[in-house]
Amino acid sequence: MVRTLCCLILLAASPLLASVSVAAQPPPQFIHVKSSSKVLRDLVLAPVIRKPVTARVTATAIVEPDAAAVAQITSQIPARVVRLVAELGQAVRPGEPLVILSSIELGQAKTEYLKARSLEAITNQHLQREEALFAKKITPMKDLLEARAQHDTALAEYQTARERLRLLIPASQINHLQWSRNGEPLSDFALTSPIAGTLVKRDLSIGAMIDRDRPPPLEVINLERVWVIANVFEHDLGRIKTGDQADVTVVAYGDRVFSGQITYIGDEVDRTTRAVRTRIEVPNPEHLLKPGMFAKAAIAARNSREVVVAPESAIYRVNGHPVVFRAAGNDGFEVRPVELGRRGNGEVEIVAGLEAGDRVVAKGGLELKSLISNSAANQER
After folding, report:
1. In terms of pLDDT, which residue wins out, 94 or 170?
2. Which of 60-64, 96-100, 179-183, 247-251 has the lowest mean pLDDT?
3. Topology given in CATH for the domain delimited by 56-66+222-303
4. Residues forming beta bridges with residue 56, ordered by sequence position
């Protein structure tokens, strides 16, 4: 029936070829397909080639945020929360308010500053007037000296108040500070984000008190780039260097590979694990890699070697063993057992069984495999 439908001829093992023992009942070693067969037309052959591959150093790792892209935010003065602005998980920009606080100490400092600034301006105007009158010999020296003393005192008080306020708020806010005209108390101020990122921590509620002596209640992290800290064993250190490329995988995303680069190799070997912490910087534009994730890192080592590779689609399993269908000429195909090595990028390393230059069936081999199964069943009967 197989001959009739597929126009195939299964030949017994040729005495010129060694028998292939893959099971108690070996499959035919050679398959011949008539040139007019549709099966032959559907077969796609691919060459077996030799190519250099780079050895890899593998290591367990953990995802951590870039230390320069983490901001822990708190108030430098005791304050009470009056309004929550940013939500957890919200993307924020530098300078964007996160919460609104109220501080009696800040309100008093702002009031003293504004009052000192006004007095300095008034005494300065008075001094300028007295200097002009003295120049015209209208006012005596006594009045000029008195005006100058008043201005110097007001200026000292103004500078003292400004320096005190600079300990509480940025200088940029001081320059634009005015008496409240819209009903907002001078004691209110915003805690803002110093970096662009995502608000990942907000341990606050309205009415809560915070100050600098407590753990920072706010945290913003920029996850556009993360660190993957790999534990490279001592015996592998000579095979890696700063700048080497590395591929990172995590359980959450299966076989998806995140590419990065080694930027730092630790200077100390852990005395317990005999490993060195190695930092791999990985771009993370989709924020898929989260701090705390366990990961595996494969680092491209310095040395490389040449291996024989074939398309992964050319590998079939017959009686539990990997085989390929090697083109043998005259529309014939040899069933060749192979020993496999590493896989990747649609290719598989052939440790034994093929040589560079061989051609194998990369598509359509299931038809040939079915003929082997049918032939084995007929022999059993």
Report:
1. 94
2. 179-183
3. Elongation Factor Tu (Ef-tu); domain 3 (2.40.30)
4. 300
